[in-house]
Write a structure and sequence with these properties.
Strand order of the largest sheet of chain B: 1-3-4-5-6-7-8-9-10-11-12-13-14-15-16-17
Radius of gyration of chain A: 22 Å
Number of strands of chain B: 17
Order of helices and strands of chain A: HEHEHEHEHHEHEHEHEH
Largest interface: A-B, 62 and 66 residues
Distance between the termini of chain A: 83 Å
Radius of gyration of chain B: 34 Å
Strand content of chain B: over 45%
Order of helices and strands of chain B: HHHEEEEEEHEEHEEEEEEEEE
Strand order of the largest sheet of chain A: 2-1-3-4
Structural class of chain A: alpha/beta
Number of strands of chain A: 8
Largest sheet of chain B: 16 strands, antiparallel, barrel
Largest sheet of chain A: 4 strands, parallel
Helix content of chain A: 40-55%
Distance between the termini of chain B: 57 Å
Oligomer: heterodimer
Structural class of chain B: alpha+beta
Helix content of chain B: 10-25%
Number of helices of chain A: 10
Shape of chain A: globular
């Protein structure tokens, strides 16, 4: 009897160790936004499993530290978020509640993508009378594919630091990804060359990196101040402005209410559209390449209808 | 350097090849077949060089990007460095213009300004039969008033600890004072998903107990918390939490408190008066639904605990056992709560008190054993950005204690205390909220209609979005 118990015990220990081993086989990547999950998958390949805290249909400013997110962040080996205070309402809480030393600030498992690219719109004066400002600049860096290339490098370096024995795989995946990515960027830039200098209206200041990349000129935002929903008074002011100085398109992200842009579009005749904004933001935008394919196509269709 | 030399050699090769191509083409007619072979060779060589060059350029691009990244890493890991990388300095220049080196380590500072105006149609409605309230659970003062403004200072102490202090500025009997609501440190790096918290803090039992007033959906605290927890149980203590290694959320925790505040009192057991255990779970159902449920137990020992009328308090020596079940469900289309959302929230508290009571204006200790229950159910609906409406129903019930307490404050007098609340609030931004609340209060023997206006404003550090 005793021997049997001993054997059972040994079996149990072996099983437990086996599970622990298989659980450790893959790195867990916790991405705050879908674009970072997609990028981590491109570079991590089969060596990582990714979870995304937000979907393309959720405004990443307004997420709560939900129980499911605490459970996910608990087991993360690498955390990738946009940073620049985009997740300030929930990420610090999650980091404290998740009891996970590997992904605390300062660790190699803590990666804020925004810190590695040139950020735009850094305010010189911080005053919330100007809306919900981000002291470190505009956080929506993923709308410029050049930024994604830089972040891809960082992700590869971090994955290698966390999991050195698979370093060559990460570097190989990175190099494959970048080769395709750089070609794709060249293609997008050629396709969108005609958009340079065109004037656009945006719902929220979500697109300044896209504007910077393609040379679009933002002439108005539907929100009177960042984070303040579009008001009737502000929209009628925009109507007057656009009647005398029309723009070519009104754009928003999929999680922003379509009402305001549809109203303004009807009144002015300026086309409006939701751009995917991130992976999963439209049926077509199922990966990073298709995200930009779709973005450029939507801009071209709406802004150059003659073609 | 090596790469450069190689590049030079290859360049020379390329030039030589190009020249030879010209020569070849010049002699094409005289030696056609030979030239074709050569051309094929040259083409192959050119193609291989081209691919080599592409690879090399690609490598260089990568090295450049890596170098940029390293610079950036230096900038982020060493913002405090006296000699930051040039790129970092450029990036930070906008911020550093108004932050001198000495105050860059300032903690995050958040200020909450809370103001309330209340009107009651029956301000002298009296006490709740069967219950004597303790702590800060009375009704807000009638008329214009400032509610509870607070300062929150927080930050990482180092790589091991996080610290937070919440100080409330309160006015009592015309005198201002600063109350220390919270002052705690918490670990960041314990192994095995554990977190240890020490200091003064709100107990994690129940759902509402550790939610700050400005995060409530109603202007006043839910009735069972007012009756059993002194509004919110906060005390000096130590807390250990553990996250189970499961894919779903399961948190277990235990606390020990000094036992200085209601429902404890008198720092019993040499200053280890209160113990608690709690378990919380929760998850998502699809993108649109999320929920949490918990069960907790708190046992508080009390020595000469005061409740009821401040000037003529009821004194209690003994033990107060509380069992709390909580459930919260939230809905938002696709989980995008900014546009529309619904919150449903309910808690049930069962209390057993066992000890001796000294009734007001008597000296005699009377033995008491009493079971009481309290519950609330509430829901709020944001039907468009900024606007929310909510309903709350809450009730209490208690055993009738032995006949020696007949007619005393502990006699429920066959009354069922109930309170019905309605609220409407408007948030201009994430940082400001205006609220109108109406209570139909049947907790006393005489009904009381209450109307309140509240504003909650937050300045400074961005608060956390608790679930």
């Amino acid at each position: 009897m005793e021997a049997m118990m001993k054997n059972l015990f040994t079996l149990f220990i072996l099983l437990t160790l086996g599970f622990a081993e298989s659980a450790q086989a893959k790195l867990n990547v916790f991405a705050c936004e879908p674009e970072w999950a997609a990028l981590a998958e491109a570079i991590g390949g089969d060596l990582v499993t990714t979870t995304t805290a937000t979907s393309a249909l959720q405004d990443p400013h307004y997420i709560q530290a939900r129980p499911s997110l605490i459970a996910k962040i608990r087991k993360a080996d690498l955390l990738i978020c946009s940073g620049s205070e985009l997740e300030i309402g929930w990420l610090p809480l999650l980091l404290r509640k998740g009891s996970n030393p590997k992904i605390q600030a300062g660790q190699s498992g803590y990666l804020l993508a925004g810190e590695f690219v040139k950020r735009l719109d850094i305010p010189t004066v911080l005053d919330r009378a100007e809306g919900d400002m981000h002291s470190q600049g505009n956080p929506h860096i993923q709308t410029n594919p050049h930024n994604l290339a830089v972040v891809a490098e960082v992700i590869a370096a971090r994955l290698e630091a966390i999991d050195p024995k698979n370093g060559t795989s990460y570097q190989q995946n990175l190099s494959d990804f970048l080769q395709q990515w750089i070609q794709a960027i060249a293609r997008w830039e050629t396709q969108a060359a005609g958009l340079r200098g065109k004037e656009i209206v945006v719902h929220h200041k979500s697109w300044i990196y896209l504007e910077d990349w393609l040379g679009l000129v933002e002439v108005a935002t539907l929100e009177s101040k960042p984070g303040i929903p579009p008001s009737g008074a502000h929209l009628s002011k925009l109507l007057t402005q656009l009647e005398s100085n029309p723009a070519t398109i009104i754009i928003r992200s999929p999680y922003q209410d379509a009402k305001a842009s549809k109203w303004l579009s009807e009144k002015t005749g300026i086309p409006e559209t939701a751009l995917p904004f991130t992976v999963g933001g439209s049926d077509q935008a199922s990966d990073l390449f298709k995200l930009f394919d779709e973005t450029i196509q939507l801009l071209l269709i709406n802004m150059e209808p003659s073609q | 350097m090596e790469t450069q030399n190689l590049n030079t050699v290859n360049l020379i090769k390329l030039v030589a090849l190009t020249l030879s191509l010209f020569v070849c083409s010049a002699n094409a007619q005289s030696a056609q077949s030979q030239t074709v072979d050569e051309l094929i060779n040259i083409k192959a060589e050119l193609a291989s060089m081209k691919s080599q060059y592409e690879k090399r350029i690609h490598d260089l691009e990568r090295r450049l990007a890596t170098a940029e990244q390293q610079l950036a890493t230096q900038s982020t890991t060493a913002q405090k460095a006296s000699n930051p990388a040039p790129e970092a300095a450029a990036r930070e220049s906008n911020n550093s213009s108004y932050a001198s080196a000495s105050n860059r380590y300032n903690p995050a500072i958040g200020i909450i300004i809370d103001g309330e105006i209340w009107a009651y149609d029956n301000p002298d409605a009296g006490n709740i039969p069967g219950f004597t309230l303790g702590g800060e659970s009375g009704l807000a003062d009638e008329g214009l008033g400032i509610g509870e403004s607070e300062f929150v200072f927080s930050g990482n102490v180092d790589n091991w600890f996080y610290g937070q202090i919440t100080a409330a500025i309160e006015q009592e009997d015309g005198e201002f004072g600063i109350g220390l609501e919270e002052a705690f440190i918490e670990t960041l790096s314990l192994p095995a998903s554990m977190t240890l918290r020490m200091g003064r803090f709100y107990s994690a039992v129940g759902y509402l107990n550790d939610k700050h007033k400005h995060a409530w959906d109603f202007a006043d605290q839910a009735l069972p918390y007012r009756a059993f927890m002194g509004s919110q149980y906060t005390d000096d203590g130590i807390q250990l939490r553990w996250l189970a290694p499961t894919d779903f959320f399961l948190e277990l925790g235990a606390e020990i408190f000094r036992g200085g505040s209601y429902p404890a009192g008198g720092n019993a057991n040499s200053g280890f008066g209160t113990r608690s255990l709690f378990a919380q779970t929760g998850g998502d159902i699809g993108f649109s639904h999320s929920w949490t449920a918990g069960f907790s137990w708190l046992t508080a020992d009390a020595i000469e605990r005061e409740s009821g009328d401040e000037n003529q308090p009821l004194l209690f020596d003994g033990n107060s056992d509380l069992y709390i079940a909580d459930f919260v469900w939230k809905w938002a289309p696709n989980g995008n709560s900014k546009q529309r959302n619904i919150t449903f929230q309910s808690e049930y508290i069962w209390r057993q008190e066992d000890g001796n009571v000294v009734l007001p204006a008597t000296n005699q200790a009377l033995s008491l054993k009493q079971n009481a229950q309290g519950w609330y159910v509430q829901g709020s609906y944001q039907w468009m950005p900024r606007w929310r409406a909510g309903l709350r129903i809450a009730g209490l019930s208690t055993d009738r204690p032995s006949s020696i307490f007949s007619g005393s404050a502990l006699d429920p007098l066959s009354h069922n205390p109930r309170i019905y609340s309605f609220m409407l609030d408007y948030a201009n931004s994430e940082f400001s909220r205006l609220r109108l609340q109406y209570n139909h209060d049947e907790t006393s023997l005489v009904n009381n209609q209450q109307i309140g206006l509240q504003y909650i404003m937050s300045i400074g550090a961005h608060g956390g979005h608790e679930f």
